[in-house]
Amino acid sequence: QLFAMRGSRCFSASTEPQVAHSSPPRVPNLIGGEFVHSSATEMIDVLNPATQEVVSQIPLTTNEEFKAAVSAAKQAYPLWRNTPVTTRQRVMFKLQELIRRDMDKLAVNITTEQGKTLKDAHGDVFRGLEVVEHACGMATLQMGEFVSNVASGIDTYSVREPLGVCAGICPFNFPAMIPLWMFPVAVTCGNTFVLKPSEKDPGASVMLAELAMEAGLPKGVLNIVHGTHDIVNAICDDEDIKAISFVGSNTAGMHIYGRGAAKGKRVQSNMGAKNHAIVLPDANIDATLNALVAAGFGAAGQRCMALSTVIFVGDSKFWEDKLVERAKVLKVNGGLEPDADLGPVISKLAKERIHRLIQNGVDSGAKLLLDGRNIVVPKYENGNFIGPTLITGVTPDMECYKEEIFGPVLLAMQADSLDDAISIVNRNKYGNGASIFTSSGVAARKFQAETEAGQVGINVPIPVPLPFFSFTGNKASFAGDLNFYGKAGVNFFTQIKTVTQQWKDLPSGAVNLAMPTSQ
Ligand code: NAD
């Protein structure tokens, strides 16, 4: 039993009987293939956001333990990189099967630590699982190129080689999907990995690592260290770590991007968002309102691709009242309750911050059409709940618009024309996603061409690409140049080696010092 969750649910893959805990179970690190408890004295409580119950505790991993994890990854690297790609793929084939087997356990853990509804937690696992499935085709994805006879008797070819030890630093909002964006691609390319899960919901990462070991991933190929800023800084500074995959806020992301790059590392940094929906009056009302409600309030707005701002163009502004009608019937409840549409936000601090931003909208002259701040959820009175909130008459200068709220709060703005609406979207510093709702192909095409968001939806509210494409945020939502998963993800975790070979019967003759050419 690695660690059992307080309360009734235990989610270790181990079959040993559950041991009673007087204090909260400690979440182990994974170092060199062993799940080990840190000797750290400082711990952080992992809280169930629906109840404030302490689910477990993570250690602030010591520097020695961190070094041991990197050293284990470094030692495992030579053998793993030389392991045939077909063997590496087979580990992923097995891993996807095991994730399916344990999907329910993973989802319960996610709901308990993160708060989202059970159904949404299944989606969290499933969208990560799809990356594992994609990694099963790594041999083709990692293929190099070959040009025969670039000069007489000479061929040039390129191979994509792994980098070495890579690291991943995760946010709280997708405890399974985001670790699965990172390590399956990295290790199937032949790298070894050090993962730092979010300190708020580390359970899914540990469960996934158990499954990866069960699937046959050799010891040391995947390691896990828990902690916060210090461990992140240690990752940025470590000479043996070649690349960092980060997902989270802009404050942390830009810090990691700068500090990691200063040490010569590759960094891909997916960060915050303010995703807009433009609604034209010719859109299908019913489908559009449903899409806005689902993408605005699903996961309590804690998705990086949540639609947090809707711009009603022209007469579509009259739909605001209908939006309120649909939003206010959503059921806010503990995520394990079968009728829950949305669960709590992650922490008391997050709840206070969201309340402050809602109040900022009101104080700046916007209109609160639906106020979710005073909600009380029976059985979960201590939870960090906020009900669906709709603020209209928002303008670009308001703090509630400029900042990412990351809660169940939808801001509504109005524009006279599509041009005006696109200009609002493009003036926003973020560029993760933007959607348009319309029945006009001409308008949709203009929007697609002119909007500066990296992921565009046309009558699709949350256009997160499947893993054969890549997750392509831009502007302040992304730093780096190789995106997550898909071809770009494989390129991020590999470097190109170009080989030129000459095989011919060489005539003897005078030495030639001029630049060789094939003229
Ligand atoms: P966060 O930045 O607070 O934490 C992310 C990770 O960084 C954690 O592991 C944390 O320990 C570490 N960290 C936080 N502050 C740090 C600091 N100052 N120095 C070093 N390390 C630090 O993010 P979060 O609150 O967990 O996640 C929510 C954010 O993530 C939102 O902004 C959301 O938009 C973003 N996000 C983006 C994407 C995307 O693909 N663009 C996906 C999911 C989430």
Automatic annotation (TrEMBL):
SUPFAM superfamilies: ALDH-like
GO-annotated molecular function: methylmalonate-semialdehyde dehydrogenase (acylating, NAD) activity
Oxidoreductase keyword on record: yes
Domain of life the protein comes from: Eukaryota
GO biological process, one term: thymine catabolic process
InterPro entries documented for this protein: Ald_DH/histidinol_DH, Ald_DH_C, Ald_DH_CS_CYS, Ald_DH_N, Aldehyde_DH_dom, MeMal-semiAld_DH
Keywords from the named record: NAD, Oxidoreductase
Family label: Belongs to the aldehyde dehydrogenase family.
PANTHER family, per the entry: MALONATE-SEMIALDEHYDE DEHYDROGENASE, METHYLMALONATE-SEMIALDEHYDE DEHYDROGENASE [ACYLATING], MITOCHONDRIAL
Protein name (database record): methylmalonate-semialdehyde dehydrogenase (CoA acylating)
